Amino acid sequence: MIRSFALFDSLLVLALCGMSQFAFGEPGSQTQGAGVADAPAVDITQPWPAPALVQGIPIPPPRSKAQVDAVDRQRPFRLVLCAAKKDAGHGGTGYHDYPVWRERWTRILAEVPGVTVEPADQWPTPEQFGSADVIAFYHDNPAWTGDKGPELDAFLARGGGLVFLHYAMNGRREPQALSERIGRVWTGNKWMRGDVALKYGVHEMTRGFPASDVHPE
């Protein structure tokens, strides 16, 4: 779940890289490159065409390069990656391995010029809420209670971006308070295990992606 346009520009490439692993497969796999030859050519030097509204929210005007450069010179872009130990229901190797995600992406993103990355355990500290530009959560949301809502409110109000990945949308005993802030939460409903034949809906982030087979976790 993505909230705030400050986040969109920063993590779009990261999101698409992660999605392409499912859409096109690992290098050398049978699914790698499937459908790519049929995709229309895109001039990546030009701004991506976008409608005036996305999910009912007005898109802000593009920033000029001079504006972006001015921000880049001011200070680094600060990311916080928040994880927790593997939850009890997913003990298999690679299943909900939140610490491994945090470790790997901390090292990867730290290589990006102008970006700093900090780890957080279960929930960001007040200092991290005060300094981060984007906070990404990937865990089973073990620390969530409704009284933490004002911290999210204040962070969003000052222009911060929040990312809740997969099981981080767990609303626990107070799902309403979380859903009011990120739009949707998990409340213990049933799920399906097994392979999925995926067809993307009409959305700006998945435009041009071919249908693909997904092998969950």
Q: In terms of topology, how is this protein built?
A:
Blueprint: E1 2-3, H1 5-24, E2 53-54, E3 57-58, H2 65-74, E4 77-83, H3 98-109, E5 115-121, H4 126-131, E6 134-137, H5 149-157, E7 161-164, H6 175-182, E8 196-198, E9 212-214
Parallel strand pairs: 4-5, 4-6, 6-7
Antiparallel strand pairs: 1-7, 2-3, 8-9
Structural write-up:
There is one protein chain. This protein has 6 helices and 9 strands; from the N terminus they run βαββαβαβαβαβαββ. Residues 1-37 have low confidence and may be disordered. 30% of the residues lie in helices and 16% in strands. The chain has helices spanning 5-24, 65-74, 98-109, 126-131, 149-157, 175-182, and strands spanning 2-3, 53-54, 57-58, 77-83, 115-121, 134-137, 161-164, 196-198, 212-214. With 217 residues, the protein is of the alpha/beta class. A 5-stranded mixed sheet has the order 1-7-6-4-5, sandwiched between helices.
Helix content: 25-40%
Portion in beta strands: 15-25%
User: H/E order of the elements?
Assistant: EHEEHEHEHEHEHEE
How does the helix and strand content classify structurally?
Answer: alpha/beta
Number of helices: 6
Number of DSSP-assigned strands: 9
Strand order of the largest sheet: 1-7-6-4-5
| Radius of gyration from CA coordinates | 18 Å
Would you identify the regions where 5 or more consecutive residues have pLDDT less than 50? 1-37
Which shape, going by the Cα principal axes? globular
